Amino acid sequence: MSAASSDAAREDRFPLVLGLDTFGDVTYDEDGRPLSHAQTIRDVVEEGVLADQVGVDYFGIGEHHTDDIPMSAADVVLGAIAARTTRIRVGSAVTVLSSDDPVRVFQRYSTLNAVSGGRAEVILGRGSSIDSFPLFGYDLADYEDLFEDKTGLFAELLKGGPVTWQGKTRPALHDQDVVPHTESGPFPAWIGVGGSPQSVVRAAHYGFSLMLAIIGGSPARFAPFSQLFQQALERFGRAPLPVGVHSPGHVAATDEKAREEFWPHYLEVIRRVSKTRGFAAPTKESFTYETGPQGALYVGSPETVAKKIAANLTSLGANRFDLKYGMGGLSHEVLMTNIELYGTQVIPRVRELLT
Prior knowledge:
Elements: H1 3-13, E1 17-22, H2 37-53, E2 58-61, H3 74-83, E3 89-92, E4 95-96, H4 102-115, E5 120-125, H5 132-135, H6 143-158, E6 163-165, E7 173-176, E8 189-193, H7 197-206, E9 209-213, H8 223-235, E10 243-251, H9 255-277, H10 284-291, E11 298-300, H11 302-316, E12 320-324, H12 332-354
Parallel strand pairs: 1-2, 1-12, 2-3, 3-5, 4-5, 5-8, 8-9, 9-10, 10-11, 10-12
Antiparallel strand pairs: 6-7
């Protein structure tokens, strides 16, 4: 099968999904003062409810454990959103499986699946942010072994029925029933990949869908990962699975307004994390590139963002896009406007462009 026909077959098999992700950055009032962690969490609930109302397909929350991103129990917040919505799918973006217990992650998300009436998903990751490792007593030297071991166990848990498993990082399970049981088979599970071919192959090996976390540079460089994923699935004798893209962005009425709102907060956040993550601090020139057609930031008017999403989904052979919205320092009101524009203008336009 040619690459073009393979992509067409995959698009027929998997519907287009357009979602929103947030890390739950502390929100600010109109005078630029940070609000409490409690208020920030309540704001995220309202944002999830609005996303449902304006037609967004998926709402994800990424796990973090810092003062500026206090979203340490995303599944609890997702449960609150699920209770107030009827349509939107809810899940993680991502759950740091390396520093968690796979049984507890499964139990929490199968519970969320019950609360939401079958709308739960989970995106698993090794953890690009390492705050959870010292918090829960894990050694960073075990980074790879922890994720490999726990991913294998999670794959077994998704099969349903009593689990027998033995690994290196937690006690073995022997014919263990794990509750709650799901009503209609396993909930969707993804592996978040930020640039490692080994992680792509791991996702295919265990039968997880692939979520490409593209946060900088040209998205086109990830196209080989999509191809590798499908090749690996075939090699492991598995059916085709969806490919998604997670990237940062911000939508406002005009390109100028979107960049003006996003730039100072983006600069501050990247400067802060660059101290521990080795990122180069952005410049106005690099920001202009990243927000342009070849970059990884989806910042602009609804038309600009929609065209960029449609172009990159096509080039990457993907059927899902999650816009990671929000950046420390933005107000709840600005975030709500972003969500409304994304749901009412960006999503219909992307569907139109890809029809």
